[in-house]
Design goal:
eight-stranded mixed sheet; about 25% helix; about 25% strand
């Protein structure tokens, strides 16, 4: 489908989703965003759903301002994937050992490494700017300085919620490695701190929703936020790169005889801010639950823990600010999913996948998400499909 345009106060709301299918609370959030004085455009992805301040699945282009709640609290959250030389024929019948080895190598949930991971100790790993990145920690908000040790030990860890590590097959039988994570606790604390700072500023006192508080260009508060935002986005990128290196090392060891090789890693943020130019204006484009899909850009659009995912290539549609969805998107809240579904339902919906099937992950059950095939179909003018993946191992926090 192409987009549907819904009237908005300052800008039209371009929707790659059927407005009638979007919950009332999310539609109201979109209307609220369209009232912001600094807004220049709003694009809505097919995975749109209710979020904090701004919906998940929205792309907000503003001139001279940025809204920290419209980035999300997991700054820099995103995906990484890599195709391997392995095929389905190389795999054992029982994948439980592989899942166990992944969980031993990469801490999940609130876990962290006993010692900070050093890139030099990871086979074949390259981390351009690693020392410079950590050197800039001195420049982030004083409110999180005491978290430095924790931040170093959480580098290369998964977290919980909808984050995952997967071992997948594409339709030709090739094995892919894929993972989803962000900036861990340090990113959340930076986001919470700056959202609180923004809400205190005089120009935000009359906003329709205090969670839409913004920072304005050429102010000390904006400079501080941009510094911390870009640092946290870099943390998330490094976090995924370290995890992918650890994951690759597990696969190398488990499949020694196959002498596994890996294609270049595909990686993309889906909660972040980028400086981009549209219609002659320099804009700050916030993607919250959306990936960049400029012409030729590779991206990753995952479904749920039982349905599969897509590797895509962007078509460069400027009406969406060169964006596409970040996943299937939830169709019910975590609490609603827990009330509605049982562990038996989870077992049924993840049959054939080596993964957790206990009550702790019922909120991640596939039925709590929109159908990924439908989400892909609704954005055929934004991306083309390169590969369809189906997970056979899924690690959750």
């Amino acid at each position: 489908m192409s987009y549907v345009e819904v009237p908005g106060a300052k800008v039209p709301i371009r929707m790659w989703a059927d407005p009638a299918s979007v919950e009332d609370g999310a539609m109201q959030q979109l209307r609220n965003v369209a009232t912001l004085p600094w807004i220049k455009g709003l694009a809505v992805m097919p995975d749109v759903h209710f979020g904090k301040g701004a919906t998940v699945g929205s792309v907000i282009a503003m001139h001279g301002a940025v809204c920290p709640a419209a980035v999300g609290v997991d700054i820099g959250c995103g995906m990484s994937a890599v195709k391997t030389s392995l095929t389905a024929n190389d795999l054992p019948g029982d994948l439980s050992r592989l899942r166990s080895k992944i969980e031993q190598a990469i801490p999940v949930g609130r876990g962290m490494h006993d010692e900070a991971v050093e890139p030099d100790h990871l086979y074949g790993f390259r981390a351009p700017g690693w020392d410079d990145f950590w050197g800039r920690f001195d420049g982030v908000a004083n409110a999180v300085k005491f978290r430095q040790e924790r931040a170093t030990k959480q580098m290369g860890t998964l977290g919980s919620g909808n984050h995952f590590i997967e071992f997948c097959l594409d339709e030709s039988g090739a094995v892919w490695l894929m993972l989803h994570s962000g900036s861990r606790n340090i990113g959340k604390e930076l986001a919470d701190f700056h959202i609180g700072q923004a809400q205190k500023l005089p120009h935000n006192q009359d906003l329709i929703d205090r969670d839409l508080a913004v920072f304005i260009a050429d102010t000390p508060q904006m400079a501080a936020y941009r510094n911390d935002l870009f640092w946290a986005q870099e943390y998330a990128k490094h976090n995924r790169a370290v995890m992918m290196a650890l994951f690759q090392n597990v696969v190398r060891k488990e499949f020694k005889k196959a002498k596994v090789t890996f294609d270049p890693v595909i990686s993309c943020h889906h909660n972040y801010v980028a400086e981009e130019r549209y219609e002659g204006m320099d804009l700050l484009v916030t993607r919250k639950g959306a990936i960049r899909a400029g012409s030729g850009d590779f991206g990753i659009i995952p479904g749920s823990m039982g349905t599969g995912s897509y590797i895509v290539k962007g078509l460069g549609n400027e009406k969406s600010f060169n964006s596409a969805s970040h996943g299937a998107g939830r169709k019910m809240s975590r609490n609603a999913a827990k009330r509605r579904f049982s562990t038996r339902d989870l077992e049924d919906q993840t049959r054939g996948v080596e993964c957790r099937k206990d009550s702790g992950v019922v909120d991640e059950i596939p039925a709590a998400y929109k159908p990924i095939e439908q989400v892909i179909e609704q954005q055929r003018d934004l991306v083309e499909v390169v590969a369809k993946l189906k997970q056979i191992v899924c690690v959750k926090g």
